[in-house]
Structure prediction request, 122 residues.
Amino acid sequence: MYSRFVALRIRPAGREIREATAGVELAESWLLAEWSAGEPGPVQFWLSDLPENTPLTILVRLAKLRWRIEHDYRELKQPLGLVHFEGRSFNGWHHLVTLASLAQVFCTLRRLAAAPKAAASV
Prediction:
């Protein structure tokens, strides 16, 4: 997969923002845009309040980190059973979350051990 990225410093504006902040302008933010290969224009956008000196590579890595988080959460819910809790006590829920988290760590370590070259490039 190949994409091009551009990051610009912008100041968000708009009537709703001014009304919500009592007319105060918001601080400058990063606008990150992604063009996927073969697309005529940008396909995804992100706003970030990271410092002005943040390199483009860091902005892209953090924006794309969302995919990893969503994948891990989906794995916790279905294959590792987080959605199957039907108890009513905090202790029962706490035990399930703890065991599901440990299972997630185990699965992640196994996946990284099976593909050491992919893990080294992350």
Remarks:
- The longest strand covers residues 3-10.
- The beta strands are 3-10, 29-36, 44-48.
- The chain has a mean pLDDT of 84.
